[in-house]
Amino acid sequence: MLRLNPIFDTQKDVVSSILAKEERANIGVLEPRILSVERDGGVVYSWRGATGTTRIGKYDPHSTENKLLYTFEKQECVSSCSLNKEETLLAVSLSQSTQGEGRFKPVSKCLTLLIEIHPINNTKVLKAVDCKVKVQFLYPKTCRPTVLESHLLLAAEDGYVDQYHITLTRQEGYRVVMQNPERLSRERVAEDFSWVQWDSDTQRLFYITAREKHTLKCVQFYPDRNFETVFELPLEMPIVSSVTSSVRFVNFGYDHYQDMKDEGLRLEVFTSPTGTMCVCYSHPVHWHKDATYTIAFVHRGCSKTFTVSLEKGSAPANLPTVHPVFIHMDYYIVVYLADHFLHLINCRQQDLLCYSLFLSGTDGHIEDLGSGREVVSVSGSRLLDVRAGRMYTMELNPDFLLELLSSDRPEAQRLAALHCMLVYLQPNPVIELKIINWISENVMSFDAFDQIQEFILATLYRISYQQCVSLDKLLPYSCVFEKKELPVALTAIPGVKCTPELLCQPIIKGKPKSLQGYWEELQHVLERMRYFEAVPSPRFRSSLLKEDWDRFQAAMNSEKKKSPRYHRQIEENTKKVLSMVDTWRLDKRVVPLFQEEDQQQRVLVGLMVDKLREHLNRHLSRLGKKKIDLLVVNYAAKLLELVWHVLELMWQKLKLGPWVLCITQQGSSEEWAMFHVMFRILEATKGLCLPLPPGYSTLLSVLGVRCLPQHTFLQYVDHGLLQLTEPFVSRLMTDLDNSDANEQLKFSILKRLPEHMEQKVSQQWDHPITSACISREYVRTLLEINLENTDSALLDYGRSCFYPDFLPLNYLAKILSNREEQAQNPSEEQENVDVRFVEEMALKQTQIKLGFEVK
């Protein structure tokens, strides 16, 4: 499920460098130990030297070089270590034993030193206390090339954090030393805490204090040496009291000498630039009990506690307790318990369990992270195996996610895997093609969800969210919420119990000018959350367009026009969308779409734009009308492009060509497959009332008449599954010959057309009956023009030059001729119709009636 990519290994990246400088025979077993990972990615480590010394070095991931920083004359137990950004100062905490000799006498359990290392010079004792002390230099982002000041955090197990401001000075052109080392400036950052976490990427300090009640606080450090408490969250969870059993340090380096027995609560905070914050905590897991862990979605105002039933196997009673590992992957929080389960929890769509992926057994196993490993999450979505001395970056394995789409998997897993690939993973043409192939091979809708609807909505959501994160709560991301009742298969995970709770409202403090970047975004997220909780149905549902769409269709079929102004607005919307559709490679496209007007789809496109714009203006007015208009038009254009893209890939896969448009031949198995996929896309979009590219209905009907028996085709038409568009019917009338079967099909189609379309397309069929109908309609229209100007004096009872012996016809022709001269454009829409044509048709029909000619 998770693919680990090694980026650091002490045995490969460090040992060879050490051996080049020291004799292996004098070292024994060389085991470098990772002490800390700094903000710049540098890894600080220690090892025992050849002469019984303790050495500290740094690995630079950018240059892949190792650098010796400092050497202690004897073996020391380094419990915490940090290097400043300029690599001129080294802060070290040493765990002292009650006995010992050497340069530093063991007068306390912990000795904290500040050492000048550019070059190695003075050493200052910062603390000598009987409690653990952790050190961490700040890494401020600054534009100044040379900074002669460093800031050091010192966190003590007694429950306080101090910041030391260390002013440096340059001597002899290259020596960097502390200025007034005996009088270092110091400030109290936090106190009375029971848990503290450092986030090196964002330069934030989280801690839990319990002066009145348990509260999670956050201190933000700025480049100008200032800091302030910007966030507070009251914690009313009953289990938080277990945090106070002993002070816990998170991301303050790695102490290889501490007692690894851990019976208390493990807690971590994860944030992302998009304004999400998750507080994750878990109880230790005993082999014979269930695993319990909680994710508090601060940006959503709720928490979820998961209880997982573990397999009860035979295990020794003294098996040590373990904790699940929390890993932050931006969109997901990964909860991993080796040899048991892997839970991929969605941080943004946590409404239903089916958008999170739970795997157990071999599915949830990570090869390099078996039981017994001490694994911690590092800033930047990295994972550190402390004991093995390896660091990894993590990514989801798309090949495994594709395997989860197989038919033998639960539908909740299939939906979670599909959603993960479509929304979380970066666009990948190979993965996209595999998903489309999977859809084409499993084209029928599943019981719990429609995979085509999910593909369309999730893809559009990802595209739109990348353009504007504010659309998170307003655009649909799944088809599941269109169902009246949620399927049971999507509401629960076997063996996993979920208990949701509401969180207390967090308090964002600090000065307005300092609330920039993440804190500004989190504040907007929290404000939107409170607003959307008070607003009914904030998420746009395109299916609600159906009522307006039905009215438009009825108006078009009856030739009744809606308000001209509103109709113009809808048409303008459509023009904007079609102008944004990627048609610049039209000559390379193989699926013939966007080549006709398709009035119905044009209206639906414009209607969706109108309603979506109205929805966003109502709930997101701060973006401005111009920005909203651009987002809405782009959303509709991407929808049309997405459907077109799917058809292009399917067309190429089935190796179809332009012969598909020839309706005189029967369709092949490949064309039937294409028809089936297109029909399911039509069904899926119709269920959501989403528009399709102009020309889609015509192409589908062409494939239908080629692949379906005539009676089945007509049943599809009668049930509204296939549309008799004007281009399709025109092609049918002109391309098919007048065999008995084709003649029957044409008559069946003509009688199903609206009257205005029937009159128009019937002219294109060269057939005696349609010719007679055309003549009758022509005569009726002509005689209705200027009836008040009837002038019998104009009638000439002379002989007709065409049929001198047929006086009735001669008389009619003369009337029509006179009317034709008086009327203004009498046959404007009647091509190739005149008096001569009417005479010929009338004579022919008379002969048929008298039995002189067979039809």
Major sheet, described briefly? 6 strands, mixed
Q: Report low-confidence residues grouped into runs of 5 or more.
A: 791-804, 824-829
Shape by Cα distribution: elongated
Distance linking N and C termini: 73 Å
Report the sheet-strand fraction. 15-25%
- Rg over CA atoms, rounded to whole Å, is 39 Å
Class based on secondary structure composition and strand pairing: alpha+beta
* Major sheet strand order: 19-15-16-17-18-32
Number of helices: 20
Number of strands: 32
Question: What value does the average pLDDT take?
Answer: 84
Which percent bin holds the helix content?
A: 25-40%
Protein name: Gamma-secretase activating protein
Pfam family, one: GSAP-16
Domain Gamma-secretase-activating protein C-terminal: 640-747
GO biological process, one term: positive regulation of amyloid-beta formation
Textual characterization of the structure:
This protein is α+β, with helices and mostly antiparallel strands and 855 residues long. Helix content is 32%, strand content 24%. Helix 4 runs parallel beside helix 6. This is Gamma-secretase activating protein.
Distinctive features:
alpha+beta, Gamma-secretase activating protein, 6-stranded mixed β-sheet, GSAP_fam, 20 helices, GSAP_C_dom, 855 residues
